[in-house]
Structures are given as C-alpha cells and as structure tokens.
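Inputs:
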Amino acid sequence: NAGVTQTPKFRILKIGQSMTLQCTQDMNHNYMYWYRQDPGMGLKLIYYSVGAGITDKGEVPNGYNVSRSTTEDFPLRLELAAPSQTSVYFCASSYSATSGIYNEQFFGPGTRLTVL
Amino acid sequence: QKEVEQDPGPLSVPEGAIVSLNCTYSNSAFQYFMWYRQYSRKGPELLMYTYSSGNKEDGRFTAQVDKSSKYISLFIRDSQPSDSATYLCALVGSYNTDKLIFGTGTRLQVFP
C-alpha cells in the first residue's frame, strides 16, 4: 500500500492565482482530513470528510474549498491565493471515527506552498 | 487560553540521555492522548497513544497522562540520534474522536 499520497510536493504561487492540492489514499478509509502547519503553530484542521459526498469545515476553512467524489480522493482547492496561505499542507485519513474509539490518522508527506 | 500548550524547544541532549517532553491542556473532556513524531520535511506519524489516565510503555518510550493536573508527558530512554525530530502531542475527546487538537510541537535534537 502506498498509504496517503499528495501532489505536488512543492509549489510557488503568485497572489491571486488558484490551484488544487491532490490527496489520494489506498487504505479504503472513509474519513479524510486537510491540515495546514505553520512554523511554531502546530497543525490546524482546514476541512474534513466522513465519506464520499460529505464534507465539513474545520478550524480554518476560509480561502479553501474541498470536494469528495470518491472514497480515495480528497482534493483541496485554493482560490485567489494570498500570502497568508503560505504553509505546509498535510492530508490524512482514518477509518470511521466510531464514537468513543480513537482511530489513528495516517498522514501524507505534505505539500509546501509559498504564495508571493 | 490555548487548548493545548507545548514548549517548542529546541531541546538538545546527548545520546543516551533521558528525554522528557510535556504538554498541558485546559479541557477536561479530552480522553485520548497521542504523541506524533515528525521528521524534518515529512508527515507526522503516530508514536503511541493512551486512553484516560495512566502510563503506557513501548520499548524506549513511555507515555504518561495525569488528568487531575491536565498534564501529559512522553519519556524517551537511552535517546538516539535517530530520535531527532519534532514531537507533537495531540488530544481528542471521546465525544468527537475525529477532531484532533495538536500542540505546537517540541523539536528534539540528540547529538552523538
């Protein structure tokens, strides 16, 4: 299994441009997540999905959009990129979060995005 | 007040030292306590987790939770240069086990 894969690894955007960060998992996990990690700030949840066709906002959703048309893929869309979106983006997946039971989140290698 | 506080370090220790990494938290509803390890330019990976209070040991690593003090610790015995990484604590409540709350991470460097 490849686990969670993300593309691209690096990207530089100009202010106002848009792009899609790709995330794919091959573990048949129904839960998928997008986080951003800023220096000294830990990971913040942007959006998450509990299954195909269902998405919900996390802690910092402004400026981003997501869709989930298949179990495997969970792309993150940046519209009108801003310098504040310069960050490292991580995608993660897990089995369904059964109430009261923690299921490990598996992380991808990340995408480093710089907006200039 | 932040939900989770973690000293960012960096913490620099010689090989073989005992390392203590800590987090404090404010919400008593947290029930699961995780430690993730993140190597430079890689994604976080789960090191170990505990449920509720108590200790859990895995090889050279021991996780400790004190819910009365809202304090969690990760101890690394006989530290190795390969342990050099950022260690993030993460907490979740039993009511919403898909929403991880991360600490800021502590950068650890173990020198030979």
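The two ends of chain A are 36 Å apart (CA to CA). Flag for discussion at group meeting.
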